[in-house]
Design goal:
Strand order of the largest sheet: 4-5-10-6-7
Helix content: 25-40%
Shape: globular
Low-confidence stretches: 1-8
Bound molecules: flavin-adenine dinucleotide
Mean pLDDT: 95
Oligomer: single chain
Structural class: alpha+beta
Largest sheet: 5 strands, antiparallel
Number of strands: 14
Order of helices and strands: HEHEHEEEHHHHHHEEEEEEEEEHHH
Distance between the termini: 67 Å
């Protein structure tokens, strides 16, 4: 039979340290709590990244501020050519949004590839981005879509473009007293091809490597292209040299292979159970080519 202190030791790895729970009903009330509680507090969204970290005791906040009861943080709408998505909108809500299916199918495709239904019912787009995990899927998709983020503190609001938002692993431009309230995405112009190509070992896993692509063609040549990579560096990566190599050119197999080589050149993945650095880098190249090919088909070329 297990002794009491052995059980206590085991429990420590699955039960978070004690914390106080707060459930404000408005962004204003959440911001007040955040400024009062300071470093002691953590925001809780879907909890699918934060709670595992608390259970492993990598995070031990004394206070959790649950954003789940703030209606103004939810919803998807279009305003003046921009999609505005509340940070607490769940993956499932993204997937079933008629507006996104019509205007931004890349986001729907990406959300469908995140983990499993349990995670997608609770996990939120704002949490996925704010967490700053390069293995998460939304960050690269945001780069490919040219998104920006509304960050609000008691002092006011700022809108930060995705370029430069991710500073390192689990490190973003979010300040401790800020809440991400909204994600803004310019509506892709009609006829924009898109694809999120994700390689994962099994259903529910994070990407071994993935590529997000948006593509506009003018006749047979590339008018505009964006390529961003998931889980092959400390942050999501924008493959700028690969994009430059394609603009104004025909999207031939050789051009796509050359772009994939350039994308591989910026990869710096950490080896883990999903593979070593060389394998992950090769898979990033493979995903880039797959995404470009499908984006070309979807752009009607
Ligand atoms: C088994 C499993 C598999 C998964 N697979 C994938 C996958 O394949 N792809 C993928 O992308 N993700 C995956 N995830 C992660 C999942 O998508 C999480 O839901 C997501 O990373 C965090 O979103 P959340 O709403 O759960 O945020 P939480 O876990 O509640 O919060 C995460 C962090 O962001 C902060 N935060 C949350 N919301 C805000 C906000 N509005 N403003 C400021 N800070 C905020 C929190 O304080 C916390 O530090 C997986 C998770 C699990 C458990």
């Amino acid at each position: 039979m297990k002794r009491r202190h052995d059980l206590a030791k085991e429990e420590k790895s699955v039960i978070p340290a004690p914390f106080a729970y707060h459930a404000p009903r408005s962004v204003g009330a959440a911001l007040t709590l955040l400024s009062e509680l300071g470093d002691e507090a953590k925001l809780l969204a879907g909890g699918h990244s934060l709670l595992p970290m608390m259970k492993m005791r990598f995070a031990q906040p004394a206070h959790l501020i649950d954003l789940g009861r703030i209606p103004e943080l939810k919803g998807i709408r279009e305003e003046g050519g921009t999609l505005r998505i509340g940070a607490m909108t769940s993956e499932n809500e993204l997937i079933w949004s008629k507006l996104l299916q019509e205007k931004c199918p890349l986001l729907v495709e990406g959300a469908r590839l995140i983990s499993d239904p349990q995670v997608r019912y609770k996990g939120t787009i704002g949490g996925d981005i704010s967490h700053g995990d390069p293995a998460n899927d939304h960050p690269a998709i945001m780069l490919a879509l040219g998104a920006s983020f509304v960050l609000r503190s008691a002092a006011g609001e700022r809108v930060v473009p995705v370029d430069g938002f991710f500073r390192g692993t689990y490190d973003t431009q979010l300040k401790p007293d800020e809440i991400m309230t909204e994600i803004r995405i310019p509506v892709p112009s009609p006829g924009t091809g898109y694809c999120y190509a994700k390689l994962k070992r099994k259903v529910g896993d994070f990407a071994t490597a993935a590529a997000a692509v948006t593509l506009r063609m003018k006749g047979q040549t590339v008018a505009e292209v964006a390529i961003a990579l998931t889980n092959v560096g400390p942050t999501p990566l924008k493959a700028r040299a690969a994009e430059d190599s394609l603009r104004g050119k025909a999207l031939t197999d050789a051009a796509m292979a050359a772009a994939a080589d350039l994308a591989m050149g910026i990869c710096d993945p950490s080896p883990d159970q999903r593979g070593d650095a060389a394998y992950k880098t090769a898979m990033a190249g493979e995903m880039t080519q797959r995404a470009l090919r499908l984006a070309r088909t979807r752009a009607g070329r």
